[in-house]
Amino acid sequence: MFNLIKKDFIIQKSQIFLFIPVLIFFAIFGRHMSPAFIFFIASFYIPMNGYIYDEQVESNIFLNSLPYTRKEIVTAKYIGAIVYMIVSIGLASIILYIFNYGYMMRDMAIAAGLFFVFAALAFPLFYILKPGYIGTAVLIGVILTAVILPPIIRFLAEHFTTITNFLTSQSAATLYLSGAVIAIVLYLLSWMVSQFMYQRKAF
């Protein structure tokens, strides 16, 4: 299964070389952006590209001819996504530090949480829907969500004061822990859904 995880890294060497200049661009010209958003984009880059590549070349047909079970194929994707998320956020933190772009551990934690939530929603689509434009749709969805979500949060904060007051009454540790638990549970549920769908998918 380790070879399946390594596959995404090998087939994306050229994309990874592009990944670093993009991070440098954000570090230089994205001073107005939230560090958490930059970390989130970095965390999603390799796992999402791996899924998009598999969709474009229909690699699942080839993978199912190898001595791997379908459970192992899906498991490798989900575990590999976590590994690449950690590596990508680590690399992004180094680049931001080099270019004196201020951030805190909290930004990295928020990005990791967002990664788990978006991955939980996006990954099953590659096993449920027919190939074609899934990857593009997911990437557009991520960008639109990143643009639309902050105004929605501000609107809720202004007009639903009961919820706002309840959240502000909680300690930061409680909020972060609750968010982490919710994000991880969603990711595990997504993993189970993908396993279920992939077992029944015909190639």
Structure explained in plain terms:
With 203 residues, the chain is an all-alpha fold. Helix content is 83%, strand content 0%. α2 runs antiparallel to α3 and α3 (35-57) packs antiparallel against α5 (70-98). The relative contact order is 0.14.
Put the structure in a nutshell:
With 203 residues, this protein is mostly helical. It has helices spanning 2-11, 13-29, 35-57, 59-63, 70-98, 105-122, 125-128, 134-159, 161-169, 172-199.
What are its keywords?
single chain; mainly alpha; globular; 203 residues
Number of strands: 0
Number of helices: 10
Q: In terms of structural class, how would the helical and strand content be classed? A: mainly alpha
Q: What gross morphology would you assign?
A: globular
Report the end-to-end length measured between terminal Cα atoms. 21 Å
Helix content: over 70%
What is the residue-mean pLDDT, rounded to a whole number? 79
Low-confidence stretches: none
- Strand fraction: under 5%
Largest sheet: none
What is the gyration radius calculated from CA atoms?
18 Å
Order of helices and strands: HHHHHHHHHH
Task: Summarize the SSE layout with pairings.
Layout: H1 2-11, H2 13-29, H3 35-57, H4 59-63, H5 70-98, H6 105-122, H7 125-128, H8 134-159, H9 161-169, H10 172-199
